[in-house]
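[step 3/7] inverse_fold.run input=structure_tokens len=223
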């Protein structure tokens, strides 16, 4: 490790405040540290938005023009910006916990992206006439259920990144084709963690069908 980087890491143990968003740039040839980046998690946020755009590129309908955004924070802004790089979005509708935040978001996105952006009175009506939906809320209770959506809708659910968060009701996942980057992680940190009672979820992947019995989350029944 270069002397400057070693000195920096040593300084972290001297009672300085913890720093979020610490990233290292390593040489592909030598493995040595080339730079230490303190971005306050901005690059992580951009990466998450880019992953959402990749999902939409491969999973959403090619003619998708309308998107619903659930949430009005930083990730809601980045996700919509990234989505416009892979789909010709003409209209967006946003729902947030506070109407004022939703109106600020709508005005900002309309000015910055040139898309018509309106505010939905509730999640159900926000999802009623779109081809893509993006959930970006740190919600403790499911916001989207099966009766809220129609066939052909692609949902990017990225807000459930901790054990206590849950945006999508399990019944919707059971009724849809569910795709995740890593099933083992999703069962611990995302929607699949929140199965209740005797609910079952059918997950398709790698040419096989898996049935999960949620009254015993650690047990898999059938293949």
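[step 3/7] decode complete -> sequence:
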């Amino acid at each position: 490790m270069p002397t400057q980087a070693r000195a920096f890491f040593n300084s972290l143990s001297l009672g300085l405040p913890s720093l979020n968003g610490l990233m290292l740039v390593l040489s592909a040839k030598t493995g040595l540290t080339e730079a230490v980046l303190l971005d306050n998690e901005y690059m992580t946020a951009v990466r998450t938005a880019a992953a959402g755009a990749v999902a939409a590129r491969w999973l959403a309908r090619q003619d998708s023009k309308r998107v619903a955004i659930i949430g009005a924070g930083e990730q809601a802004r980045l996700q919509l910006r990234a989505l416009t790089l892979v789909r010709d979005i003409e209209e967006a509708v946003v729902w947030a916990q506070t109407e004022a935040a939703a109106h600020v978001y709508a005005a900002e996105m309309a000015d910055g992206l040139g898309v018509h952006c309106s505010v939905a009175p509730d999640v159900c009506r926000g999802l009623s006439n779109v081809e893509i939906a993006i959930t970006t809320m740190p919600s403790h209770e499911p916001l989207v259920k099966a009766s809220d959506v129609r066939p052909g809708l692609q949902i990017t659910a990225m807000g459930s990144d901790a054990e206590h968060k849950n945006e999508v009701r399990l019944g919707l996942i059971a009724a849809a084709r569910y795709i995740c980057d890593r099933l083992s992680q999703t069962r611990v940190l995302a929607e699949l963690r929140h199965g209740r009672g005797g609910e079952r979820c059918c997950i398709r992947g790698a040419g096989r069908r898996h049935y999960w019995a949620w009254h015993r989350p650690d047990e898999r029944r059938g293949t």
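[step 4/7] annotate
The longest helix spans residues 42-59.
The first strand starts at residue 22 and ends at 26.
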